[in-house]
Amino acid sequence: GLLKPLSYRDRRLVIASNRGPLTLRDSGSKGLEITPSVSGLVSALNPIIDQEGGAWVGWGGRLGKPDEIMGKTLPLTDRNDAFFHEVILTEEEVEAFYEGISNSCLWPLCHNFVEKALFDAEQWQNYRSVNIKYAQTLLQKSQPRDLIWIHDYHLALVPTSIRLERPQAQISLFWHIPFPAPEIFATLPWARELLKGLLDCNLIAFHTESYVRNFLITAEELLGAKVDHVTGSIFWAGRKIIVAAYPIGIDWRDFESLASKPEIRQKAHQLKQASGGDYLILGVDRLDYTKGIPERLKAIEWLFENHPEYKRKITFIQIAVPSRTQVKAYQSLRREVEETVGRINGRFTEDHIPVRYLFRPLRKDHLVTHYLAADMCLVTPLRDGLNLVAKEYVATNGNYSGTLLLSPFAGAANQLKEALQANPYSPQETAEQILKGLLMAEGEKKRRLHSLYKSVKEQDISWWWKRIKQAWLTGSTITVSPKAT
Ligand code: GDG
Prior knowledge:
Blueprint: E1 13-19, E2 22-26, E3 32-36, H1 40-52, E4 54-63, E5 70-75, E6 82-89, H2 91-110, H3 121-141, E7 147-151, H4 158-165, E8 170-174, H5 182-185, H6 191-198, E9 203-206, H7 209-223, E10 226-228, E11 233-236, E12 239-245, H8 252-259, H9 262-275, E13 279-286, H10 293-306, E14 314-321, H11 328-348, E15 355-358, H12 364-373, E16 376-379, H13 388-397, E17 403-406, E18 420-421, H14 427-439, H15 442-458, H16 461-475
Parallel strand pairs: 1-4, 1-7, 4-6, 7-8, 8-9, 9-12, 13-14, 13-16, 14-15, 16-17, 17-18
Antiparallel strand pairs: 2-3, 5-6, 10-11, 11-12
Helix pairs in contact: 2-3, 3-4, 6-7, 8-13, 9-12, 10-11, 10-14, 13-15
The site of GDP-alpha-D-glucose has 22 residues, from helix 1, strand 13, strand 14, helix 12 and helix 13.
């Protein structure tokens, strides 16, 4: 049956994530500007905090002096029982904690890009102290019985600070990116410290069973923790920690309802007409080297080279949302992508431009217009925790038509079994699967789409939260003897 909302007077849900749900900006004459933050994580957690009430601790985007830790407290819902508590960071912290350890070390490492991971001991010091900052705010804004829900690789040491203050606290962490194999994770000079941080949780959740397996083996090998691989539990410091796979879902009703609006359907139709070809193919990603954008472009190039009859028939639109633009690896990726787009269009443009590239975010209704207009969506990351774009494309088109080509290296491939698959490292295989999808009989297209739609609807955002809540409240209360460490 349904679980009761968690929030009653003495036990609330308190979320912590790197970025908070609101972005604040001091804009001189206009005063403080407050806008909703745009990210997959925020759209996933908004309906949950809306339902449960509670508090959310996160950075609001404002920079301050070292002694400023907490900023504003702002209401999150009309009901006034959910609040955002702003964390203030210094410029140096943003560089070392966010751009440094989080995005130039842990991000590449967890996505198997070992050669891109930068290990800087000074930055690690900073990562530690910023994690303490978040923990201080959490402790101040929560009660001992509250459920502390931490998100992602930015905040792996927060559980330790909470546990020290409150040995009985209920702490859970959701890790949104892959967890790598132990021999990769072990290259992190602070691997043990980070692991111990995570093990101060009661429940650690990932998107897939294989990330869970990697985590269990890593805890066993690097820490010598006692692990039960059958139930997914770790015995450490006298506690039992549950480790489980709960892939995040989406609020599909939102996409379905936008997709049924006549003005959006009309715009989608116009977009398809304006593209000029028979087939419109779409890619939507943050501009990130994990997303396989240059590889995808090479597949399109292979296709035009080997099947020139498609030059006029196919338009490929790549929406690349600017991301982490201060980090070098992202700057050189941008150059590579733009050169490749230029080369392909230079080679294959006749009376029709085959590749369109947008380096900017779109408004949500425009994004849905693109999903709707596209005959096929290419979700071909080299590695991806889950990938929400795949689910959003399916939710938008579920009642109509569309084909999804999905990389087996996206966590979502475990759920979206009826998608076409291709190894993104092979331009030829990817191009052949694109053609297969375009030429597929209508009946099979429909059958595949329906099955995908069914799983996106069944395993949606409330399914996800219900599962996590259940595991949290029922599975992690058993205490074992301290000898187990
Ligand atoms: C991390 C993990 C995991 C994209 N372009 C626009 C736009 N978007 C929205 C999409 C989607 C979100 O951004 C991207 O989510 P993804 O899941 O695809 O990727 P990451 O940002 O890397 O997210 C990932 C996720 O966390 C959740 O756990 O799935 O594996 O890497 O929601 O719709 N939104 C708007 N305009 C755009 O142009 N408005």
